[in-house]
Design brief:
- The protein is α/β, with parallel strands linked by helices and 240 residues long.
- 35% of the residues lie in helices and 27% in strands.
- Strand 3 and strand 4 form a beta hairpin.
- 24% of the residues are buried.
């Protein structure tokens, strides 16, 4: 169970940055800036308040740079009206929604358009259901394909085959539970393939190293030598 967070604010120049502070059984302070611009700080359970604040102050410039960098990126398009002409992302490319009158059938990608057929074109709820069903199917098929590909590489480095699932997540592209279950964000199907491979391999490496230690990054580099470039590309897609 995740420990309860204490809401605080750090200052850097004229900026006041809210963050959530967690106390945990760890040796060093860790700061996570999420794609949704949320700042989470994980501090050693028995560190004094003064020690924690000194460590946070040292990290403040990095936090500000990271937030500024993320804010410069556009969030993934998140259409809410489900009308013809709206933009949807798939594997890093933009596609236009095209709602057509006709007997309802599964949505289909044709050229640079995502076609949806409904009996009543103003029925946006039916359009939404068709689009969401299309994304779920594409996400499952895509993650399954690249999980298999990444696992084939990971197996050579002693990483076991995981149990995994996909679901919508607001703040993370992927996660690995202490029990070794990997969860991938359905929205991953919207970003480029190289980013999908990066997230999957990142989570697979957590099966051997449940942290972000030097050993973890060494293993990740062995499995995916250009992971830094892939991560940089992924950072350009901010979850809305």
């Amino acid at each position: 169970m995740k420990p309860e967070a204490e809401k605080q604010t750090m200052e850097f120049g004229s900026r006041r940055i809210p963050y959530r502070l967690y106390r945990a059984d760890r040796k060093r302070l860790r700061i996570v800036v999420s794609p949704d611009l949320m700042v989470d700080i994980f501090a050693p359970r028995f560190a004094t308040e003064e020690e924690v604040q000194i460590a946070i102050k040292k990290k403040a410039p990095w936090v500000v740079r990271t937030l500024d960098k993320l804010e410069a990126y556009q969030p993934l398009p998140n259409p809410k009206n489900y009308l013809s002409g709206e933009t949807f992302m798939y594997l890093g490319r933009q596609y236009r929604l095209k709602v057509e009158y006709g007997f309802r059938k599964p949505a289909k990608l044709l050229g640079r358009f995502l076609y949806v057929w409904v009996k009543d074109t103003p029925d946006t709820q039916s359009v939404k259901k068709s689009v969401e069903a299309w994304y779920r199917k594409r996400a499952h098929d895509t993650m399954e394909r690249y999980m298999e590909k990444c696992q084939a590489v990971a197996a050579h480095h002693g990483i076991p085959e995981p149990s995994w699932m996909i679901r919508n997540m607001r703040r993370r592209w992927g996660s690995c539970s202490p029990s070794g279950r990997i969860t991938l964000n359905t929205h991953l199907v919207k970003v480029p393939v190289q980013c999908i491979e990066y997230v999957i391999m990142h989570e697979l490496c957590h099966l051997k190293n449940h942290n972000h230690s030097k050993a973890f990054y060494s293993l990740l580099t062995c499995c995916l030598h250009d992971w830094r470039q892939r991560k940089e590309t992924l950072n350009k897609f901010r979850l809305s």
